[in-house]
Design goal:
The protein has a single domain (2-177), classed as Alpha-Beta Complex (Maf protein). Strands 1, 2, 3, 4, 5, 6 and 7 form a seven-stranded mixed β-sheet that branches. It has helices at residues 8-15, 38-51, 79-89, 124-133, 160-164, 168-177, and strands spanning 2-4, 22-23, 59-68, 71-73, 93-104, 107-119, 153-157. By secondary structure, the chain is of the alpha/beta class. The relative contact order is 0.18.
Length: 185
């Protein structure tokens, strides 16, 4: 089994399901999605790139994005862009979507998983506190729910792990559909 990702969070989450797997960061340009469905296309490109290196492997690819209405919030380019994202998310619901593709010798399965998250209203001081204590430039939407930003979450509807970067239940279900048995890598 191979995880087509450079995300340490995805690696840690997959480790909860699978004891032994290889990690190969795919060399795929990440194009900002216009809508959540585009995340599936990027996940599929990641899987295709890694399967060319490991043709017989069961490969998992995922791409996660944060959307506020029709606007996509990717990984911020700098602290100021992160600050702007957090201001926009303050006091509002947003959607975290993950395009997930699993492909192996037995076929291909995919899913688009969405989770709704509502942030509390954030003061400028809270935003600065968060930015001073957390690395945000590698996180879609400028936050990691599993870190300090967890204190900003007032409500969540859906899969918590999807917000971290890999929806565990759906990943497990897709692996099982392709014949992967628990207890075997």
């Amino acid at each position: 089994m191979v995880l087509a990702s450079s995300s340490p969070r995805r690696r840690a989450l997959l480790k909860l399901i699978v004891d032994d797997f290889e990690v190969i960061p795919p060399r795929v340009p990440e194009v900002p999605p216009s809508h959540p469905q585009d995340l599936l296309r990027t996940a599929e490109e990641k899987v295709r790139a890694v399967r060319s290196l490991r043709p017989g492997a069961l490969v998992i690819g995922a791409d996660t994005g944060v959307f506020l209405g029709e606007k996509h919030f990717g990984k911020p380019k700098n602290q100021e862009e992160a600050r702007e994202m957090l201001r926009a998310l303050s006091g509002r619901w947003h959607t975290v979507a993950t395009g997930l593709v699993v492909q192996g010798p037995g076929g291909r399965e995919s899913a688009l998983v969405t989770t709704q998250v509502r942030f509390a209203r954030l003061s400028p001081e809270e935003i600065e506190w968060y930015l001073a204590g957390e690395e945000v430039l590698d996180k879609a939407g400028a936050y990691g729910i599993q870190g300090r930003a967890g204190v900003f979450v007032e409500e969540i509807r859906g899969d918590f792990f999807n917000v971290v970067g890999l929806p565990l239940r759906v990943t497990y279900r897709l692996l099982r559909k392709l014949g992967w048995p628990p207890g075997r890598a």
